[in-house]
Amino acid sequence: MRKLALPDEILLSIDKPERYIGNEVNMVWKNPRDVDIRFAMCFPDVYEIGMSHLGIQILYDMFNRRDDVYCERVYSPWMDLDKVMREKNIPLFSIESQEPIKEFDFLGITLQYEMCYANVLQVLDLSGIPLLANERTEEDPIVIGGGPCAYNPEPLADFFDMFYMGEGEKQYYRLLDLYKENKKAGGTRLDYLKKAATVPGVYIPAFYDVTYHEDGTIESFEPNTKEAPKKIVKQLITDMSSTDPEAEYNYYPRKPLVPFIKATQDRVVLEIQRGCIRGCRFCQAGMVYRPVRERNVEYLKELAYEMLNSTGHEEISLSSLSSSDYSQLEELVNYLIDEFHGKGINISLPSLRIDSFSLDVMSKVQDIKKSSLTFAPEAGSQRLRNVINKGLTEEVILKGASLAFKGGWNRVKLYFMLGIPTENEEDMKGIAELCEKVAEVYYEIPKQERNGKVQITASSSFFIPKPFTPFQWASMCTKEQFLDRAKVVNTRMKEMLNKKSIKYNWHEADVSLIEGLLARGDRKVAKTVLRAYELGCLYDAWSDSFDFSKWQQAIDDTDIDMDFYITRERDVDELLPWDFIDVGVSREFLKREWENAKNERVTPNCRMKCSGCGAARFGGGVCFENKN
Amino acid sequence: MRIRIKFAKLGYMKFIGHLDTMRYFQKAIRRAGIDIMYSEGFNPHQKMSFAAPLGVGLTSIGEYMDIEVNSTKSSKEMVDRLNEQMVEGMKVLSCKKIPDDGKKAMSIVAAADYMISFREGKEPEGADIPARFEEYLSSDSIIVTKKTKKSEKEVDIKGGIYEGKVLEGKIFLKLASSSAEYLKPELVMSGFYNYLGEKMPEFALEIERTEVYAENEGGFITLEDLGEEIPENM
After folding, report:
1. Nearest chain A Cα distance for residue B59, angstroms
2. How far apart are CA A374 and CA B75, in angstroms?
3. pLDDT tens track for A322-350
4. Which top CATH class is B108-220?
5. Who among B12, B21, B85 is closest to A1 (CB)?
6. What residues of chain B lie within 8 A of the CB of A311, using their CB?
7. Structural domains of chain A sorted by starting position, each given as residue range(s) with its CATH number in brackets
8. What residues of chain A score a pLDDT lower than 70?
9. Contact (Cβ atoms closer than 8 angstroms) between residue A180 and residue A211
10. pTM to 2 decimals?
């Protein structure tokens, strides 16, 4: 047995020591001395969250296929261990070899949500790696960031040596090869970064200079090194339909890791497609993962079978942004039910539209009495749903609810956003009125056919404009505006006839503000992140540990004007902090969509009609369907 | 048909809690293709029960669980198949068929064996530990303070200590382990430190459970011996 980094005395005095000992089923074992490159893959949150992330499982498998690379994992130590490690000066270690992260060649950090930024600094700090990239030496790992938040990397620019934009399958082998070459040739860290800068999708913040206008907006954003390109082009795999596991870029783990501890995703995850045809205007994922690319259904069947066998999981879940849009959904779901449902395996189908097909499937795989139906109208009125281009109509929602109630369901969850651009009081009240209509549909069913009382839960989150969406220029609400809007909804709820059947709750406004700052921040915000971390911010994505007063102080200490970042509507010609990235979707398209939003005009989805968003030039996916 | 599986949990697997150990075996049994029975309903679960939960921090070479199966391979093949699925530190030691009238393991557990060693630097300070330990166990009564969530009380644990001696520098204990009387080895050992006029330091002991027994004709029989070997070609 390998030696653990932590002694028994520590492991027995902290919560869930299983988070730190590894040895899970399907963990990859290699001798670190036998490889050329050691890569530490980090999800900067607690183990159970990080272990549930599909992207890391894909890259872990992909990297470890190479004999010259050992990819290991590292997560944020929970607060109890964090304290002990600081007190006793224990360096952060990897799960696999239990060796210090500082000894690795790379530390790759996935950025899945803004509220993990303080944890990024925690991971660097506990590893003994200088927080600022420009203070690192030849002894430190190359710190590389990726994931959705990398599409606006600027608030983290000071802390990363490089970012990679796009799907890891495409360029990581090349980055690793270049590293090996550079090391063999005796090249320095800077030599490597210069080489890496020529790889498509790689952004090295130190190779770019930013200047600002007097009003704080960006004047110029220019490379300062000849290797650095002016535009960074997002990388993606154009063809995901291959059934050949050896095909180029076709990586999917057939033996995913199985944690001892119950992870958030304690199941086989089958990624059926990437991207989304819908084009909801608030959704960053729906824009940056364009175009939609489907996996081959026969290949998915084979993967499902193999992964269930290799993990022993008792549940399989489909993963995509909108499963109902997968063209082979019926065939795949029927296969899963026929093949596995009788063998004690649950089938979970998130992000399905409620219609007769999905209700039929759900009635086969779920206990209707215990499960609830989820609708995401996002906005309370049709007018506002047109603004956000959410194709769901009231008629569809009520029809779906009616079908479901007749099928025996009596619990419904409805998700909304408050603070969407152009939102007026009627739109807010519409949330309560829509809930009431759903309740009324239930009570239209003859009493003897009802399954007790109906339970409707409505939740609203606060709208946060994200980069590379048509709302990237929009004004975001202040805390007071958010809470006032929630109050309008809540007051209207209380006026409803069926108010006793409806529960309404809304998110914390404080955390939305910080998320808004980090989402559209520029390089100047990096010092706020650093200050917040110094003040003790950690695990901000957890409501119990999020401390707004510390963030407020960090904002004050670093002279950040929240209005500039939050409430200010940007001019469409302003140079935005993320404009040096080319995600496929063009600025012209986003501008058009911003205009369409203001004019309440709906844009058809990719399968109905191409709207010329720009993603077609990647040369694959839905843009080329039926165009042989 | 009921099968009794005996397994070892060694090294850092001692940090895996009881519920997670169960989840681990549920998945291992699926991977091994064991024809286990499931309960009815929308969330079917495997028919599996553990004899006696093992606390976090303890290793063991004598853990037991019972499973209900529709069909079985030979004992040898079952052991091999399961061991192909084990991670480092987990090892299946035997698979035995329990007679149809046999009781569930968890209902018949009566006693357990432990081997205990002191962590370096945390041994009792007094001299001649083996002799003093024998002396401690042969007292007329062994009064220790038992702490529960609500209160503390003095109890005599002498009746629950079936055997105890020093073996090759380690302490061996056979303790009551039934639902009526369950004695933790830590309690016996902290009593010993007190007997020596010392206080047991934190994390002083490394404890391994080595066997679990049922009562049998006035004596004890291992849970494993209540089952029978499944031959090839059954």
Report:
1. 13
2. 48
3. 999 999 999 999 999 999 987 888 888 88
4. alpha beta
5. B12
6. 27, 31
7. 8-233 (no CATH), 238-363+576-628 (3.30.750.210), 367-520 (3.30.750.200)
8. 627-628
9. no
10. 0.96
